[in-house]
Amino acid sequence: MGRSMSGTRRASLRIEGKVQGVFFRESARVEATRLGLTGWVRNRPDGAVEAVVEGEPAVLEEFIRWCHRGPPQARVSGVQRTDDEATGQFSQFNVERTS
Fold first, then answer.
1. Per the residue annotation, which of 9, 10, 29, 43 is the catalytic one?
2. How far, in Å, CA of 64 to CA of 69, rounded?
3. Which of 5, 9, 51, 63 is most buried, most CB within 10 Å of its CB?
Protein backbone atom coordinates (compact mmCIF):
# COMPACT_ATOMS: atom_id res chain seq x y z
CA MET A 1 0.00 0.00 0.00
CA GLY A 2 2.30 2.73 -1.24
CA ARG A 3 5.36 1.41 0.57
CA SER A 4 8.61 0.68 -1.15
CA MET A 5 9.91 -2.87 -1.07
CA SER A 6 12.44 -2.09 1.65
CA GLY A 7 9.84 -0.42 3.87
CA THR A 8 11.72 2.87 3.98
CA ARG A 9 9.86 6.14 3.59
CA ARG A 10 10.68 9.74 2.74
CA ALA A 11 9.46 12.80 4.61
CA SER A 12 9.86 16.34 3.29
CA LEU A 13 9.71 18.79 6.19
CA ARG A 14 9.35 22.53 6.61
CA ILE A 15 10.18 23.66 10.16
CA GLU A 16 9.03 27.15 11.15
CA GLY A 17 9.70 29.43 14.11
CA LYS A 18 13.00 30.57 15.59
CA VAL A 19 14.98 27.89 13.78
CA GLN A 20 17.86 29.77 12.13
CA GLY A 21 20.93 30.89 14.05
CA VAL A 22 20.24 28.35 16.82
CA PHE A 23 22.29 25.37 15.51
CA PHE A 24 19.11 23.68 14.20
CA ARG A 25 20.72 22.28 11.03
CA GLU A 26 23.81 20.86 12.72
CA SER A 27 21.71 19.47 15.58
CA ALA A 28 19.35 17.88 13.03
CA ARG A 29 22.32 16.32 11.23
CA VAL A 30 23.62 14.83 14.50
CA GLU A 31 20.16 13.50 15.43
CA ALA A 32 19.47 12.04 11.97
CA THR A 33 22.90 10.41 11.86
CA ARG A 34 22.37 8.96 15.35
CA LEU A 35 19.08 7.47 14.15
CA GLY A 36 20.61 6.10 10.93
CA LEU A 37 18.57 8.34 8.63
CA THR A 38 19.74 9.81 5.33
CA GLY A 39 18.90 13.05 3.51
CA TRP A 40 19.61 16.74 4.03
CA VAL A 41 18.64 19.88 5.91
CA ARG A 42 19.04 23.54 4.90
CA ASN A 43 17.93 27.06 5.76
CA ARG A 44 15.37 28.78 3.57
CA PRO A 45 15.55 32.49 2.71
CA ASP A 46 12.16 33.01 4.41
CA GLY A 47 13.53 32.00 7.83
CA ALA A 48 12.27 28.42 7.87
CA VAL A 49 14.37 25.25 7.73
CA GLU A 50 13.60 22.48 5.27
CA ALA A 51 14.69 18.86 5.29
CA VAL A 52 14.27 15.71 3.25
CA VAL A 53 14.75 12.57 5.32
CA GLU A 54 14.63 8.87 4.44
CA GLY A 55 14.50 5.84 6.71
CA GLU A 56 12.31 3.30 8.46
CA PRO A 57 8.85 4.72 9.30
CA ALA A 58 9.17 4.41 13.10
CA VAL A 59 12.60 6.06 13.05
CA LEU A 60 11.35 8.84 10.78
CA GLU A 61 8.58 9.53 13.30
CA GLU A 62 11.17 9.81 16.08
CA PHE A 63 13.15 12.35 14.04
CA ILE A 64 10.00 14.34 13.22
CA ARG A 65 9.11 14.45 16.93
CA TRP A 66 12.63 15.82 17.55
CA CYS A 67 12.01 18.48 14.84
CA HIS A 68 8.98 19.72 16.79
CA ARG A 69 11.40 20.53 19.66
CA GLY A 70 14.73 21.15 17.94
CA PRO A 71 17.86 22.12 19.87
CA PRO A 72 17.52 24.00 23.18
CA GLN A 73 17.85 27.49 21.60
CA ALA A 74 15.15 26.85 18.96
CA ARG A 75 11.50 27.82 19.28
CA VAL A 76 9.60 25.69 16.76
CA SER A 77 6.14 27.03 15.89
CA GLY A 78 5.20 24.40 13.33
CA VAL A 79 6.33 21.47 11.21
CA GLN A 80 4.74 20.77 7.82
CA ARG A 81 5.38 17.37 6.26
CA THR A 82 4.81 15.55 3.02
CA ASP A 83 5.33 11.78 2.90
CA ASP A 84 6.46 9.76 -0.10
CA GLU A 85 8.31 6.59 -0.98
CA ALA A 86 12.05 6.62 -0.36
CA THR A 87 14.29 6.93 -3.40
CA GLY A 88 17.47 5.65 -1.76
CA GLN A 89 19.42 8.50 -3.36
CA PHE A 90 21.17 9.56 -0.14
CA SER A 91 24.11 7.79 1.51
CA GLN A 92 24.24 10.01 4.61
CA PHE A 93 22.59 13.05 6.18
CA ASN A 94 24.09 16.41 5.20
CA VAL A 95 23.70 20.10 5.95
CA GLU A 96 23.15 21.82 2.60
CA ARG A 97 23.58 25.43 1.56
CA THR A 98 20.63 27.81 1.92
CA SER A 99 18.09 27.24 -0.87
1. 43
2. 9
3. 51
